[in-house]
Design brief:
It is a single chain. It contains 14 helices and 17 strands. The protein is α/β, with parallel strands linked by helices and about 350 residues long. The strands form 5 sheets. It has a 5-stranded mixed β-sheet. It has a 5-stranded mixed β-sheet with strand order 13-12-11-16-17, with helices on both faces. Strands 5-4-6 form a 3-stranded antiparallel β-sheet. A hairpin with a 4-residue loop joins strand 1 and strand 2. The structure holds adenosine-5'-triphosphate (ATP) and magnesium ion (MG).
Length: about 350
């Protein structure tokens, strides 16, 4: 039981379990106040028939297991732009199952009240908050939706004079922090992110190497291992299937070109966003640009962006550590600090 008294005493009561969730287009993560943490690729698979069910030994699979068994399951990647896509019941059910799966790793104690903060892309707050709350609301007693880059800012403690750029799979989310909870006008979302780079890279590779075979997964992994912007040392040399053998290819140009396609849109959006603030504040923000999300791990991207922004002044851009969990960790910290009256209306 929470001792009677102030709100802050109540928040520390052991009968409340706080949970932070980052629902991502490609990867979803959960972090809880009891120390549990887990992440999963945001894929759900249902066995196609009784044989597949027998082979898999279960009626539903998640993440990598779903991807690896894609021939024997109906594979669903239900999150687009980080929120439940308008449309099929199957998508809605897949998100529900994904959320249930994440909560399975949270392991609440019996009778614990669960309060979950869920990170979604900034723009989604306007359009699809309800669907997200419904899915999470099944597992949690109280739910609040927060913007993903705000959660990242919170974890970093970058609450003033800073800008977070979260480079995900479906979206790039921007959030300017000026010492208060950010509003819509402090945030932007670009719909070309990691998936877009993968499509560019796939097209470039097909064009340059028509005899080689590339799959979607291969292309994404190629980018994750070798993604680069600018003149990074070393060449990207990988073995790729051609007819029945693996043949070494130098893919430096294609990988670099595909990754660099992100740089100008990010620079343009950042300038467009921060120019709305007064010049002295802009000056401070320029020194505190943080890159988060899986795309922040592209080699040389912070330097590439700094260079692309050079015409607009001197910027200091840095990538965060642990981009995989920072959104869930930040949502968890927000949940723990959130005053009671904010739970329904952030
Ligand atoms: N080491 C890496 N180098 C380059 N890109 C990477 C790396 N690791 C992951 N990525 C890319 O980052 C993207 C996934 O990032 P993240 O997990 O932050 O996205 P998400 O939260 O699932 O998507 P969104 O926020 O758009 O819903 C993918 O495009 C993935 O291929
Ligand atoms: Mg994300």
């Amino acid at each position: 039981m929470a001792p009677k008294g102030s709100g802050s005493t109540e928040m520390k009561a052991p009968d409340i379990l706080y949970v932070g969730i980052d629902l991502g287009t490609l990867r979803s993560a959960v972090a809880a106040s009891n120390g549990q943490r887990h992440w999963v690729y945001s894929f759900v698979g249902w066995p196609k028939d009784f044989v597949a069910r027998k082979v898999l030994g279960k009626s539903i699979v998640f993440g990598e297991e779903a991807i690896n068994n894609r021939l024997s399951v109906d594979l669903v990647r239900p999150l687009a732009s980080g929120v439940i896509r308008e449309g099929t019941q199957r998508d809605q059910e897949a998100v529900r199952q994904l959320v249930l799966h994440l909560f399975e790793h949270v392991q609440p104690a019996k009778g614990q009240e669960i309060r979950a903060a869920v990170g979604v892309p900034a723009e989604a707050l306007k359009v699809n908050k309800e669907a997200t709350i419904l899915a999470v609301g099944e597992c949690a007693d109280r739910t609040v939706v927060v913007s993903e880059p705000f959660a990242v800012a919170y974890k970093l403690g970058a609450l003033n004079n800073a800008c977070i750029i979260d480079i995900g799979a479906g979206t790039i989310d921007f959030c300017v922090m000026h010492g208060v909870t950010p509003e819509d006008e402090d945030q932007r979302t670009l719909l070309s992110a990691g998936d877009y780079v993968d499509r560019q890279l796939y097209d470039l590779l097909r064009e340059a190497h028509p005899n080689a075979r590339f799959s979607e997964t291969m292309v994404r992994q190629l980018k994750e291992q070798h993604g680069r912007v600018g003149n990074v040392k070393g060449r990207v040399k990988v073995k790729v299937p051609v007819a029945a053998k693996f043949v070494q290819h130098d893919l430096t140009r294609e990988v670099t070109q595909a990754c660099e396609s992100l740089v100008s849109p990010i620079a343009d959006t950042l300038i467009d966003l921060i120019k709305r603030y007064e010049p002295s504040f802009q000056q401070l923000v320029r020194k505190n640009i943080f890159l988060a999300g899986g795309g922040s791990q592209i080699k040389g991207i912070a330097e590439g962006l700094t260079e692309a922004l050079a015409d607009h002044g001197t910027f200091r851009v840095q990538a965060v550590e642990d981009p995989l969990f920072i959104g869930a960790d930040g949502a968890l910290e927000l949940a723990m600090d959130m005053p009671s009256e904010r739970w329904e209306n952030l």
